[in-house]
Write a structure and sequence with these properties.
Layout lengths: L1 E8 L8 E8 L2 E6 L9 H11 L17
Antiparallel strand pairs: 1-2, 2-3
């Protein structure tokens, strides 16, 4: 079963970071997306935002973020 969840908080470490879309297959997260409007921001902005602000480990606590790690 596929489930698409919009605006999902991804951090268990108290951060309020949000993923625009998260895809779950049988309850297992398989993909996350950063959405941008072509009228306001480019795809390059989405790539930079995802790489810079969506780290697989919390920078402060060094704990892994479950939705961003394999």
């Amino acid at each position: 079963m596929l489930r698409v969840v919009p605006e999902r908080v991804y951090s268990l470490n108290g951060d309020d970071g949000r993923l625009d879309l998260t895809f779950f297959v049988n309850g297992i997260p398989v993909a996350t997306y950063e959405l941008k409007s072509k009228f306001k921001q480019s795809i390059d902005n989405a790539k930079v935002q995802y790489m810079k602000y969506r780290q697989p480990k919390d920078p402060k606590t060094k704990k892994p973020e479950p939705l961003l790690t394999f």
